[in-house]
Each structure stands twice: as C-alpha cells, then as structure tokens.
Amino acid sequence: MTKHYGFVMLVYRCIDCKACQVACWAENAVPLGKSRNWITKDGYNGTFPNLNVDYLPGNCMHCANAPCVSVCPTGASYKREDGLVLVNNKKCIGCKYCMVACPYNARFFHPEEEVADKCTMCSHRVAKGLEPACVATCVGGARVFGDLNDPKSKVSQLLRKHKHEVLLPQQGTKPSIHYIFDKPSEGGILA
Amino acid sequence: MSTPTSRIANVDNYDKVAIYRFVIEMLTWVVPALLMLAGIIAGLHMVVAGEEAFGTSDLVPWGLLIAGYVLLAVTCSGLCMVSSLGHVLGLKQLDVLGQRAVLLAITVLVSGFAVLAVELGHPLRMIYVMISPNFTSGIWWMGTIYGIYLVALIIELAAWQLGRYKLGQRMAVVTLALAIAATSNLGSVFALVNARPFWAGAYYPIYVLLTAIMSGIATLVILSWFLQRNKKGYQGDRYRSAIVLLTKALGIFVVLTGVMTFWKITASLYGGIPATQLAALTLVTGSLAVPFWLFEVGAGMVFPLVAIVFSKSRRINYSLAAAVSTLVGVVFMRYDMVIAGQKVSADALSGERAVSLAGYLPSSGEVLVLVGAIGFIISVYRISERFLKLDH
Hints:
The complex is a heterodimer of chains A (191) and B (392).
Chain A: E1 5-10, H1 19-28, E2 37-47, E3 50-59, H2 67-71, E4 77-79, E5 85-87, H3 97-101, E6 108-109, E7 116-117, H4 123-126, H5 133-137, E8 143-147, H6 154-161, E9 177-180, H7 184-187
Parallel strand pairs in A: 1-9
Antiparallel strand pairs in A: 1-8, 2-3, 4-5, 6-7
Chain B: H1 4-49, H2 64-87, H3 92-95, H4 98-119, H5 127-131, H6 138-161, H7 165-191, H8 203-228, H9 233-271, H10 274-284, H11 289-311, H12 316-343, E1 344-346, E2 355-357, H13 364-387
Antiparallel strand pairs in B: 1-2
Helix pairs in contact in B: 1-13, 2-4, 2-7, 2-8, 2-12, 4-6, 4-13, 6-7, 7-8, 8-9, 8-12, 9-10, 9-11, 9-12, 10-11, 10-12, 11-12
C-alpha cells in the first residue's frame, strides 16, 4: 500500500510556545514576516470561572481534494502519491489563484521568489526518514507525524483510539491533518 | 456689410479659434501619452520592487490590478458582443461602429493583459500555461480563451482592412462566440472558488456577462459621441442614430444590473451565513460602502438611469454623461466584486465558527498602472485610427 503522510494534532498538548514556527523558519529559510505554520486560539471554552483556551497548531492541510491543485493553471501545485501537496516553483506564474482558493489561508506569497509558498511537510527531511522540523521540535508533543495508511503508525493508532476532526469538513477538501480534542481528564491518558 | 476693421477682428478671432483647437488637439494626444508613461514607470517599478509595491496581502491576494484586468477584459468582450449585433445579426444602425469596435476591443484587451502582467509574479512563465496545462483550472480556460480571442480579433480586423469581407463576417461570428465564452469563463474564475462564499455559485458568470455588455455599450456610446462631433450629414447621422439605439440598450442593461445587484446583496444578507452576510455588510455599511453606494450604485446605475430617462435617449450629450458615469461605476463594480469576495473568508484558524475580515487599500502604483492602461488605450487607438481605414 502506498504511503499517505499526515499529521495528528493533540490539541491539549499545545502550549502555544511557537517552537514549531521557529523550527520551520530555520529549516526552510522562510522569509521574514511570513510563516508556513501557525498556532491559533480556539475558544474560550467552558463557563466562568472554569474557562480555558485551546491552541490549534496548523499548517497546509495537504488535502486529498486540494483546491490549490485544481485551480493552478500550470500544474505548479501538484499532489504526490504519498499525500504531500507541493509547489514546483519553476512553473509558478505567481497568479495567486491557489492562495485565493485555499480555505485554510495556508499559503503566502514569497516576496523574493515571487511564487506562492507553503508547508512542504519537510519533504526533504521525510525523504531521509526524518520527521518534519515542526514535529521534531514540538515541546509538548502536540504534533504527531506519520503514515495514515500504516495501521501500526502512531497517527493511525491515535485516530483509531480517539474522536478526531478535520477543519472545515464542509469544504470537501479531505485534509490530511486531523485534530484530537480529547483531554486526559475527559478521555483517559493519550498516547 | 463688414468693415475692414471687423474683417481684421474676424481674422484675429479665426486665429484664436485655430490656436485654441490646436492646443486642445495637442492635449488630447499629450495627456493620454503622459498617463501611459506614468503607468509604464509605475508598472516597471512594481515589477522590480515586487510585493512591497502592492497593497495586497496574503489574506487579500488579489487587488486593484486583478479588478482592472477584469474591467478591461470584460469591456473588450462587451465591445465585441455589442458591435457584433451589426456585423452578425444585421443591425444596420451599429454597422458604422463595426471596425472601430474591433480595433478598440484589441486595444482594451492588450492593455488588460499588460495590467495582468504587472500583477503576476512571473509573467514570462506563462509559457507553462501552454506546455503544462491544467484543464481543471478556471484561470487556464479564461486565459486560453482570451488569448485565442485576441488572435481572432486581430484576424477579423485584418480581414476587414484587406477587403476580405467574407472572412471578416466569419471571424465576427467566431469572435462573438469567443467573447461570450471568455467572459463567462472569467466569471467562473470567481464562481468556482468555494473558499470564498461570496463568490461561489453560478451568479458571477452571468453577472460578468451581463455587465460586460453594459460596459461595452457605454464605451461605444462614448466612442460614437466623439466620432459624430465633427461630422455633419449622413455619416454624422449614422453615429447619432447609433447613440440613440445604444443609449436605450444601456438603460435596459443598467436596470438589469441593478436588479441582479439588489438580489445578490439581499440574498447574502438574508441567508444569515456568516461569511456571505459579512461580505455584503462590508459593501452596504462597511469599508466598501463609499465605493459601493457612491460609485457602483450612484454613478453606475442611478445617475445613468436618470440621465437616460430624462433625455428619453434622444439628447446625445446626456447619453455621453450616462455612458461616462456608467463606466466610472463599472470600475468600482469590478473593485467591489474582487475585494468584497476576499475580505471575508471562512476562517478555519478560529475554529470554523468565526470569519476573518482582512483589510486592503490599493497602492499608488496599482492606481497609476490602471490609469496608464486608460492612457494606453486612448493613445494606441488614436494612432491606429490614423493609419487604418475604418469607415468601410
């Protein structure tokens, strides 16, 4: 079976330290003021005085039905068999249609290359058997990377064990990034 | 009987009028040329400076130049669709404008492509549109059809110029079909983006087609008005007759555009879907309220309609005022359409329940490039008019 790389985000583990962003900047030479990944707030949840905030780590969703790939006039945005959505910079005309079409606003315009840039899931590291930089550096272990088609992988085990969601399911994009909102206090200790 | 003194006075007066006319004539050449020059300088600066010279951002990637491209490309196809009524459907009153409309359409489309080239990060890589096509892309279809359309327009004009009327007639049918296909495809570029709920759906291909015809009519009214100025007798009457007919058509299309706009805004507000509702509110009461109410509705619909109804389409100066006002409105229609759709997007980053509101203000460079495009159109059209025989 072919590989299908993806992420599982354990939301309760994210402490909003932004180490993932810093690691990505360093690993991928992301230009100043831009970012291939992010952490956003979700909430506040609960009732006063028991309020809490979830932090949602995110990046390109590497959608199975990627709108950026469909709309790209030159095929510069393409999907690999292993699930990674990548950009061939040499073919990109800089029309920004992919940026407009992405419901997750996952792309940015690279000011020097003048192409639409995005998370590559660190394909150069994955090719060497390494985890993406954001996963390797994540302090709380909130970002989990692996082969979604491999039943023994950590991501598959997590998805089997816990209720999980994708963002904007109504867009029909079938993202490869899954979110688990269970907390140890609610659903037992997570892997 | 005139005295020698009064004769001298008349001669002086004649000289003054001649000088005045010469100055005006020069200005009509110099001003568009200066605008074009300003646009070229701004365009070159933007190509060199890159992203920082644009008002756009990662949340609002398309700005005034995309709106300008839509405006020019769509006006070009509108010109062709309306003038085809003379060539293809035998509406004799519009026959007089046939070749001039085609020439103007070519000029407008070339200026549209130039504006788009400034917006694109790598216009030279457009070669990949041909050697590595993606048939699921709305922009691929739109760009390809507009490219073929430009070639077809040039062939049509060449056929008329070379006296090959049968070929000209056939090409007029081809360009009409291409104009309709290209325009509705341009609408589909927006309609197929599910991530922007205000654009998504079948509305924009129809709206863009309808407003293309409206802007084409308005442009032809302005052209006819200038052409009839110094012409008396039969030729002048033909232009004036065309203006009367075009003004009536303009009235109809302004009303239709008004109806479509009303229901688009009403449906977006009524539905209660956060993203579409907020986009409509941005137009009605938000940051785009002035462009929307004052220019899109006021200048683009209300004023032209009042002028047309008041003059009963018979006073050509009123027709000119209505047409100019409509075109000003169309500029803002395109701007509102492009920007409102992007200002609000379903915001995955805030847990799907919220929507984001992004800001956008055009940079001076973007404005100058668009102004330069208008200078280009006037200059190139007038130069071409001198060398081509367009009255056949």
